[in-house]
Amino acid sequence: MLAPMSSHISRLSLLSLCVWVPTSAMAHAGGEAHSFVAGVLHPLGGLDHLVAMLAVGLLAGHYGGAMRWWLPTSFVAAMAVGTTFGAGEGAQTFTEIGIACSLLAFGLALLSKPSLRATALIVSTAGFALVHGHAHGAEMNGDVSTLPFIFGLMLTTAILHVVGVVLTTARVLAAARPALLKWSGSAITFGGVVLLGMLLQG
Q1: pLDDT tens-digit profile of 122-147?
Q2: Are 101 and 194 in contact (CB under 8 A)?
Q3: Contacting residues for 81 by C-beta, under 8 A, at least 6 apart
Q4: Tens digit of each residue's pLDDT (9 = 90 or more) over 179-199
Q5: Residues 6+ apart with CB under 8 A from 157
Q6: Residue 67 has pLDDT above 70, yes or no
Q7: At what angle do helices 2-25 and 177-201 cross, to 10 degrees?
Q8: Are 63 and 85 in contact (CB under 8 A)?
Q9: Half-sphere exposure of residue 118, counting CA atoms within 13 Å on the CB side?
Q10: Cα 13 to Cα 15: distance, rounded to the nearest angstrom
Q11: Which keywords belong to this entry (predicted)?
Q12: DSSP string of 31-66, one letter each residue
């Protein structure tokens, strides 16, 4: 049962790599961002944001215990703060580099044993969330009604975290968990390296 599941996960990982670069390149094109619905949909429009949010959920499940709550909570809260401060500022190169670094860090953490101290992991996760939030805020059109957008953004982010946690903690998926962590961690790390390389060369 494990071998077919591992093979299926590996094929999905390879497929994700095929669409990673062009999708990530379009992730921050900007656009209207002034409603709850826009906030709900916004994280789904950029593969780098979506994968990072799933990665936090996977990482929370990987560490287990109280981290299942602390990591997602710290990310959602810090992201909301970052979105507020980044509202209307326009795209910044450092945010894109920070997002790439977050993917690299989350991917490597998924590939390693749960060895980081809880405080260090929570603080680093919140730090990366601030960068993601700033990028979201930079894509807003400056509309004064930003609160509904942020609430929508927080909702989708929380749901993606829950999906990641479920994938790494559900009993029915226990046999596939090692393969899931291996292939998802590898794909996320590779994506972070590619994105970082593109940004540094550009």
Answers
A1: 999 999 999 999 998 887 765 545 78
A2: no
A3: 130, 133
A4: 999 999 999 999 999 999 998
A5: 43, 53, 75, 76, 79
A6: yes
A7: 20
A8: no
A9: 11
A10: 5
A11: Membrane, Signal, Transmembrane, Transmembrane helix
A12: ----SHHHHHHGGGG-HHHHHHHHHHHHHHHHH-TT
| Alpha carbon distance 126, 132 (integer Å) | 10
Q: Which of 145, 121, 128, 37 is nearest to 82 (CA)?
A: 128
> In the chain, where are the structural domains located?
34-201
The pLDDT assigned to 27 comes to 43
Evaluate whether 69 touches 165 at the Cβ level (below 8 Å).
no
> Considering Cα of 180, then 192, then 56, then 33, what sign does the dihedral take?
negative
Q: Which pair of tokens denotes residue 28?
A: 């921050």
pLDDT at 201: 85
Q: Which amino acid is at 81?
A: V
Residue reference for tokens 């975290």: 161
pLDDT tens digit sequence for 8-38: 444 444 444 444 444 444 344 444 446 888 8
What is residue 190's three-state secondary structure? helix
Helix (H, G, I), strand (E, B) or coil at 104: helix
